[in-house]
Amino acid sequence: MADQDDTVTYTVAADVATITLRRSDTMNSLDLQTKLALRDAVHRAASDDSARCVVLTGTGRAFSAGQDLKEHVRDLRDPDRLLSDTVEEHFNPIVTAIATMPKPVIAAVNGVAAGAGASLAFACDFRVLADTAGFNLAFAAIALSCDSGVSWTLPRLVGRANAVELLMLPRTIEAEEALSLGLAHQVVAADVFEDAVAELAQRLASGPTLALASIKRVLAYSATHDLPESLAHEAQKMALTGASVDHRRAVEAFLEKRSPTFEGH
Q1: Could you tell me whether strands 8-13 and 2-4 are parallel, antiparallel, or unpaired per DSSP bridges?
Q2: CA within 13 Å, CB half, 128
Q3: What percent of the chain shows pLDDT beyond 70?
Q4: pLDDT tens per residue, range 186-227
Q5: Is 128 exposed, middle or buried (0-12, 13-18, 19+ CB in 10 A)?
Q6: For residues 145 and 168, is the Cβ–Cβ distance under 8 A?
Q7: Domain residues of the chain, as ranges?
Q8: Residue 264 Rama label (left phi>0; alpha psi -120 to 50; beta)
Q9: Architecture field, domain 2-205
């Protein structure tokens, strides 16, 4: 199954939804049409029962260069348009959908991810980088603060000191350094990049989706709650997953010394 407009493609195959940014001539920068299409795509993926894993990627030599600055310059000339409008109407809903959807999301970082493009990747659960890819937290370079959740995700990935440096002194972070900092889960050669992403996506898509969603939720919850609240929330999710079909089948498979087959519920 495939749907697309001029800027974003949505496809589903073998329980994996793939969302692809298609403005390769602009390094997949995010103009209004693209932001709207991406927002629709991630919300669709979140509710799509045929998708048990989601891959977000780009075309050409970039994952995404972030906000389309040519469009932004035009908006700066319009007194009725504020930069915060697109943050609240587009970037925030996109990041929220990625971070909260009840299934794992992989950022398949095929090339440079800059500004909001990097922030989108950091909101995902996994980041697989081609060895030719890299990140750049470019906000301060154009005299901006930061958006798309990076103030929340980046310190949790690399620690506050590294986050301060990367945001206040922006530079390109090559793939291997991204791996050492904790910004990448895997770095692979560009010629096997798509195969590596597909292998991880299929492994996640064939996993216990309800359990994976619950793990994702308890990790997010514990980041903003104390230990007693986190323990109570863990108990709720254990009750939910403990009553699942997948759990019962996994226990049976363990006792019978065979691999389980998960249905995702």
Answers
A1: antiparallel
A2: 21
A3: 95
A4: 999 999 999 999 999 999 999 999 999 999 999 999 999 999
A5: buried
A6: no
A7: 2-205, 209-255
A8: left
A9: Alpha-Beta Complex (3.90)
